[in-house]
Design a protein that fits this description.
alpha+beta, Double Stranded RNA Binding Domain, three-stranded antiparallel sheet, two-stranded antiparallel sheet, elongated
């Protein structure tokens, strides 16, 4: 499976099994195994180590404790379409992990922004003081 120009996954690294789809569909659901379970063992894959660790550190319900990505595709009525969907979802997951995040540069609010904030707080406090009881003495 092609992911990027310099990264691909061999077809032997993931397994697909056909299962019966759940939900509506009438008799077709009961007699045809059109849903697909895709299993991809992250630790045994040929992915680079940094992508493996990023994948395993995700808090995704599709990744088991053993480090196996399990994707269930059952959107379409045909096995072939569900296989394509499962593979595209696996590819999207790997591409998401490959994305390099820019390090955040801490910034400070400007002097005028700080003054505006303090002025707004003072106005709000004054408004709330005016809501108090009036002392006639």
């Amino acid at each position: 499976m092609y992911i990027t120009d310099n990264l691909s996954i061999d077809d032997t690294e993931y397994g697909m099994t056909a299962i019966r789809a759940s939900g509506n569909g009438g008799q077709n659901v009961n007699k045809v195994s059109s849903a697909i379970h895709l299993r991809f063992d992250v630790a045994a894959s040929s992915l680079p180590e940094k992508y493996k660790t990023r994948l395993l550190s995700l808090s995704d319900s599709r990744i088991t404790k053993e480090g196996v990505v399990v994707i269930k595709a059952q959107t379409y009525r045909t096995q072939e379409a569900n296989k394509e969907e499962a593979l595209s979802r696996l590819k999207a997951l790997i591409l998401m992990v490959m994305e390099e995040k820019k390090p955040r540069k801490p910034t400070r609010p400007s002097l005028s922004a700080r003054r505006k904030r303090v002025d707004a707080k003072k106005r709000t406090g004054l408004k709330k003081n005016l809501r108090g009881k009036i002392d006639l003495n």
